[in-house]
Design brief:
375 residues, mainly beta, 4-stranded antiparallel beta sheet, 2 helices, 49% strand, disordered N terminus
């Protein structure tokens, strides 16, 4: 059986193109989905998403080195180290304690003193792995999530799915032509198996951009309009982990979004809008320089970034530019995510064989003096 590996980042780029081409304001009639009335009482919680290659902890960051070794950066000391206790280890083979897998997804989560991620066994079976915060324990097949679907030729179709943890459950999705599903499964290794909490229906159904905020799992889902898979009739949904209710939050083909401060912020063809989750009122914030940037709101600052131009911008919530920077000047090839302390990116070696993670101090960046530092 041959393997077809479709990276989430490539899908994200594809969907940026797709969603910029279509929008729809028709009322949603999908069975089991509410078109409003949800109480987003946890909407001021921190949103966790896009934790590609790294994740924040209380006093530092866990991140992947060369896509397969787990390291930790300590903010107080400004140093990073492999999660390996073997004396004399060169951290360059599978015997290293910090080695996870050559065949793993890029998303990392930090929860309850463990770092979690996904790996693929025999190029087919997807497992949740975890390592303790100090590196003392490692469970590479902590919990099996699914077996990859096959295409029409019998070849495995393997994706790097986005995953979230909420209220003791892990949420993930799988894709196949027939039925993309959103699943939840107990994080406890002895807990029950996976349960479908949402199914995307239609001849050309898609499910993507899974993000967690408080007790809500937000995601996008819709149907491609025709067989060229260019235009999509989609929307943003929220699954309430407490009640099991799925609510249609916004009916539109949106390029990217985040939820903070009781607001849904979203990108429509490069224009960033804010919509109240309480009364649905909307307002335009700013037209970004890029047509399809990633966006995030941290505190009272809106960040936009584009991996094509490698431009990171910061705006206040009135749309006034605070700071901008071309990360390419520092050798940073891709942005990933930020918290209220640092923004994380990746620098590739000249031959593209290895990667080095880098951090940007956001306080310095907002003051106009930020420099990326390798970790």
């Amino acid at each position: 059986m041959t393997r077809k590996f479709v990276y989430a980042v490539l899908l994200g780029c594809m969907v940026f193109v797709l969603t910029a081409c279509s929008s729809s304001n028709n009322a949603d009639t999908e069975q089991g989905v509410s078109s409003g009335g949800a109480s987003f009482d946890d909407s001021d919680a921190t949103m966790f998403f896009y934790n590609w290659y790294g994740v924040a902890a209380d006093e530092g960051y866990y991140f992947l080195s060369d896509n397969c070794y787990l390291k930790y950066y300590d903010i107080a000391t400004g140093t990073s180290a492999y999660l390996c206790s073997k004396a004399g280890c060169e951290h360059d083979d599978t015997e290293c304690d910090a080695f996870i897998s050559y065949d793993m997804g890029p998303v990392l989560l930090y929860h309850g003193g463990y770092v979690y991620g996904m790996l693929f066994e025999d190029e087919v079976d997807a497992y949740l792995w975890r390592m303790s915060a100090d590196g003392s324990t490692k469970e590479l097949e902590y919990k099996k999530l699914y077996t990859s679907p096959a295409d029409e030729y019998g070849d495995a179709i393997i994706y790097d799915p986005e995953i979230c943890i909420c209220d003791g459950d892990i949420y993930y999705y799988t894709r196949s032509e027939a039925e993309p599903n959103l699943y939840k499964v107990a994080l406890d290794s002895s807990g029950p198996g996976s349960e479908v909490v949402f199914s995307a229906t239609g001849d050309r159904a898609e499910l993507y951009r899974l993000k967690q905020n408080g007790d809500f799992i937000f995601f996008q889902s819709g149907n491609f309009v025709d067989d060229d898979y260019i235009d999509i009739d989609g929307g943003i949904y929220a699954y309430n982990a407490k009640t099991g209710e799925v609510t249609l939050v916004k009916k539109d083909a949106i390029s990217d979004y985040c939820v903070q401060n009781g607001m849904l912020y979203y990108n429509m063809n490069g224009t960033i809008y804010a919509m109240s989750l309480t009364d649905g009122m909307e307002q335009k914030i700013v037209k970004a320089d890029s047509d399809n940037p990633y966006i995030d709101v941290i505190g009272d600052v809106l960040y936009t970034w584009d991996d094509d131009d490698r431009i990171l911008c910061a705006y206040d919530l009135e749309g006034n530019l605070i700071a901008s920077q071309c990360a390419a000047d520092w050798g940073v090839m891709s942005f990933y995510w930020g918290d209220d302390r640092y923004f994380m990116g990746m620098e590739l070696s000249s031959d593209g064989a290895t990667n080095t993670m880098a951090l940007l101090n956001l306080s310095d960046f907002l003051a106009g003096s930020g420099e990326w530092m390798k970790i």
